[in-house]
Amino acid sequence: MCGYCAERDATHVSARVAAEPEAEPESSARATGLNAAHATRLNEVSLRGRGGLSMPSVHPRQAARDSESPSQAYLFVREGEYWTITFDGTVCRFGHARGFQHLARLLSTPGRPIPARELAHGVCDPGRRQVSASSSRTAERARSAVTKTIKAAIRRLGTHDAALGFHLGATIKTGVVCVYTPDPGRRIQWVVEDRSTRT
């Protein structure tokens, strides 16, 4: 090839290269960003599959409740002239009332029927079976008095803790015989104490 032809071909190649457009900086940056986002997403999926990301599915209050032992979650304690009551993490403190004393007796013996007369007089007489008119009137007076005091106590508790008031209202039956029957679907075990009698 002659010198003139070689010089002409070299000039033609240089002109063609110079004419080709370069990649736009914006397009290159967009591609880089998409690649980074895609890589981050893949990393998240990989971590989730290995348990590396926390995926909460339980309400915080429910999780705290499940982690508590029954002795921490459900307390019905008398301390002198005051009662401290804990239900699902909510703590209430009340002055003494006869209805709280009845509730404490029922909560301490779930599923056991207790005659209203026994609650009213604070004595245990499960073997007593008198059927006289006087005994019937006594039983009726006890039923009326105990029912009123228990329901008043539950209302009082409910004004400070609606969940507790609802629970007791739904699980305590009053009448000639009273009984606390907790929902079998809930893990509730009351700790009932009378610390006012300790020396």
Radius of gyration, in Å, reads 39 Å
Distance between the termini: 121 Å
Mean pLDDT figure: 73
User: What is the count of β-strands?
Assistant: 7
**Strand order, sheet with most strands:** 3-2-1-7
The backbone outline, from C-alpha atoms, is globular
> In DSSP terms, counting alpha (H) and pi (I) runs of 4 or more, how many helices?
8
* Largest β sheet strand count, sense and barrel closure: 4 strands, mixed
DSSP helix fraction = 40-55%
Strand content: 15-25%
Number of domains: 2
Class derived from helix and strand content: alpha+beta
What sequence of helices (H) and strands (E) makes up the elements?
HHHHEEEHEHHHEEE
Residue windows where pLDDT falls under 50 for at least 5 positions: 2-8, 10-34, 42-71
Can you lay out the helices and strands and say which pair or pack?
Layout: H1 3-19, H2 25-49, H3 60-67, H4 70-73, E1 74-79, E2 82-87, E3 90-95, H5 98-108, E4 114-115, H6 116-121, H7 133-160, H8 162-171, E5 172-173, E6 177-180, E7 191-194
Parallel strand pairs: 1-7
Antiparallel strand pairs: 1-2, 2-3, 4-6, 5-6
Helix pairs in contact: 5-7, 7-8
